[in-house]
Amino acid sequence: MKTFFEEYLQNPSQAIADAKHRSDNRTWSDNIDDELVYAQLASGDFRLYEAMIFSAPLDDATVRPVLYQ
Questions:
Q1: What is the Cα 38 distance to its own chain's centre?
Q2: pLDDT exceeding 70 applies to what percent of the chain?
Q3: What pLDDT, in 10s, does the model give residues 10-36?
Q4: What are the phi and psi torsion angles at 36 (to 5°)?
Q5: Taking the CB of residue 9, how many other CB atoms lie within 10 A of it?
């Protein structure tokens, strides 16, 4: 079985059409509980990850705490 990238390099249009067809037939997203997603987004863990991702790095050797107001 080829990967999407291998298919794309051989025939981009067909690879995209195939990927769209495969994604249209997936139903895993129908089973997502919206309330659970919002609860996770409001969690302290998510806020920490968010702060880590969006904070500007000082340098490789510096570790700095994230303070919330």
A1: 16
A2: 80
A3: 999 999 999 999 888 888 778 889 999
A4: -65, -40
A5: 11
